[in-house]
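Session log. Operator J.P. requested a structure for one protein chain; no other inputs attached. Running the standard single-chain path with token output.
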Amino acid sequence: MTEPDIWNSWRPADWTRSDDYPNAEANLGPERWAWEFLRRNADYQNDCKKAFLTVSDKQKEVALRIGIIFDTDVDEDLRSKLQNYGLEWFIMPFHNETSIAFTKRNIVSVQRFRGEEQRAIGSTDGVTVNCNFIPLYPKSDNELVFKVYLDRDIDQQLHELRHTIHRAKDLLPATVTQRSIRVEGKKFPTYLQLLDAFWSGETKIPQIARKLAQTLDPTMSDRDDDYFDKMDRLVKRLEKGASRARTLSESGYLLLL
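Structure written below.
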């Protein structure tokens, strides 16, 4: 896997295509929204890259396979950075279909990467969890689906799952978080588009506004008498949104948890 594939291929190829971004009505949950903003944080990407480049080749293979660089594999300086980001481990930017291991949740879930099921590994209060399970959030954020193997020690699997279930209760978002996401969450996809626009080199809000105008306000037409008034309002709206998007990417994502 080449470096661009690791660090940036997960981004939508065209930031102007709203359909390529998470839908505001998709009920992604606070961890996923927080992760969408954090993985667009340039400082986090740089620190994650440092961690990846300093670990052994075997640990690199693990990171590419499951999307995690464990804290025990990196030096003390990088481990201290994890606390600032609110993470237990460095999560690779391409890590996608998962609940992220934020310290407030203290659990990491399984992901499907390249169609391959991976093991969920975590440690909470000295209890090591090492079992296969798939978090399922199609309509509700309070469901977990576990896979138990009949050809293995069932009692041991149930023992591990029991601890996992108790820890998984922490995944349930607080009511205030859910309410704040419902209120502002409709703007999150646009915030992500703005961050990706900046990353691509498009830094002028008026130009971004022209490219997003039809998506954000389908009633706009350059033939209308009030077109320029509408465009001015859209520019101001996106300027405010850009400021909020940067805040969420830098540290505000933690308030979503």
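Operator note: DSSP finds ten helices and eight strands in the chain.
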